[in-house]
Request: fold
Amino acid sequence: MKIIGVGCGPGLLTEQAITELQKTRLAYGSDRAIELSRAYLPRDCTVRSIDDFKNLGALGDEAVVLSTGDPMLAGLGYLDGKVIPGISSLQIAVARLHIPLSRVSVVVAHGHGHEKGMCDTVDEVKKGKIVFLLADPKFSVAELYARLAALALPLRVAVMENLAYPSERIITGDIGSPPQPAADLYSLVIGNF
Reply:
C-alpha cells in the first residue's frame, strides 16, 4: 500500500506524488482528496470514494490511499505502507504568517479529541510556543478563547480558512477580540507571533 499526500489545496502536489499517482491503478480517498489528485490519475484507474477510514489497513498492497495535506499531520500516515509526503496546512499557514516551523507546536483537536486539544493548546501557550491547532466544525472555539483569555497573556490569534483554495481567508486578532472561523475547513494559530 502507498499513502500519498495530495496537499491541503489545489496545486500543492509534489513531483514525487504526481509520479506515483500516474502509476496508480486502484485509489481510495475522500472526495476532497480525489478532487485534488484526479488530473494525475490514469483514465483506467479505479477510484473509490471513502468516508469510513476504519478498515483502510485491509485494502491490500496494490492500493493507493490519498491523504489530504500530509499523511503525517493528523492524516493517514499510521497505515502500513510507503508514505509519500504532501504539503500540509501547517506549512501553508506558517508561510503565510512568516513563522518559523521551529517555533510551532502542533495540536490536533479533530474528531473526538476536543478536550485534549484545548488542554494541550493551553499548556503549549504557557510554555511560550506558537500553537497550530487543527480543529473541526464541532470544536468550541469560544471555549478555547475563554480558557486562553484567563491566562492573561498577550496572545495573537489567526484563523486560517480554506488554505490554498481561491476562497482562502486569514483573519488575525488578539485574544481580547479574537477572530471567529466562518468556514468548516479551518485551523488556528495562537501565540506570540
Q: What stands out?
A: The mean pLDDT is 95. The helical segments are 15-22, 31-37, 89-97, 114-126, 141-149. The radius of gyration is 18 Å. Strands lie at 2-5, 26-29, 46-49, 64-67, 82-84, 104-109, 130-135, 156-161, 169-174, 186-191.
